[in-house]
Amino acid sequence: MSSEQVSLGFSHLQTPPGSHIGYPYRTEQTRLNHLLDFMCAGLQNDDRCIAAITEYSDNLWMDGLRKRGVDPDNLPDGQLDILTPAKLYRCRPDLAQPNADKAFVDYIIDTSNERWNGTRVCTSFNHLLYDKIFIQHFLTAETKANDLLTGRSVTMICTFDAHRLDSRLLDACLQTHPLILSENSVSPNENYVAPEQLIDDLPEIVDRLRSDGSMHQPFAQYYFYSDTPVIRVGGELDIATTPHVSELIHWMINLGHTELVVDLSYTRYMDAGSISMLARFANMLRASGGELTIYDPSATLRKIFQIVKLQEHIAIFREVDVAVQAAHTSA
């Protein structure tokens, strides 16, 4: 293999060093397999690896690496850096610090170290991309990353959920990446916009995303309080909307999270089926040594919970930090 090419670790794909790759994935399993293979290839080559997929638990990374023949406990100090939400956002319960994205890109570059052959980075900020303040910071940082990565032995894969993100928002994020990974091929991005042009166009792009509904708040979304996923539910939970919440909670459990908080502070109504759904997940987590708690339901919901005695199955709290702490201490 030429010294001017870096193996991505799957499907014999190679890319030049300094590559900034956008990856719109369709299924979680495909993304997970690609990223684990990507990181394993780097670790086996003594590359420095930075894992910044904030929705992935530490255990998901560690178990996945072990299954691929890499013992993460015996790696040289500093070779593998798993960036948790708490490490990235310093325990902010809201969606992001204003300059977290710039600080993150700077961290990637600054921590590239001559004793490593190269640096591999995989990222995801899907849960932040609906935030109207964050999106401009994000697009600016992604644009600047192209200049920062040039001439450095850094290979960066940025992952985007093509299933959940609005297609117009997805397109805006992808145009900051010179290369696109599509399942088992890497190709030049036909819609890539040069950094200097994109910086000039950003205000117009963001205004258009805001005005055309591309950045609407999803009915159910997640954020992190420290490293604990919090599932925020809006509006009414009924037969039509409960499956969205169930899918999100189930996904978090599959990603290795055993402590979860459900944020009902924006929920106006819940039917019997949605209450039963929460009780089932609480029992499932508790059976495996985990815990689910509820944060700040309205007075109306509290009365309903008292009638059905939900508090006998799930602890309910008025403060999110207390709900998070209870999920950990009860587990």
Would you kindly provide a written description of the structure presented here, covering whatever features stand out?
A seven-stranded mixed sheet has the order 5-4-6-7-3-8-9, with helices on both faces. Helix content is 40%, strand content 23%. About 2% of the residues have low confidence. It is globular, with a radius of gyration of 21 Å. It is an alpha/beta fold and 331 residues long. Helix 9 links the parallel strand 12 and strand 13. The longest helix has 17 residues. Helix 4 packs parallel to helix 5 and helix 5 packs antiparallel against helix 7. It has eleven helices and 14 strands.
Rg estimate, integer Å:
21 Å
Oligomerization category of the chains in this entry? single chain
State the order of secondary-structure elements, H for helix, E for strand: EEEHEHEHHEHEHEEHEEHEHEHEH
Helix-strand makeup class: alpha/beta
Helix content: 40-55%
Sheet with most strands: 7 strands, mixed
Overall pLDDT score: 86
Shape: globular
> What percentage of amino acids are in beta strands?
15-25%
Record the strand order, biggest sheet: 5-4-6-7-3-8-9
Number of beta-strand segments: 14
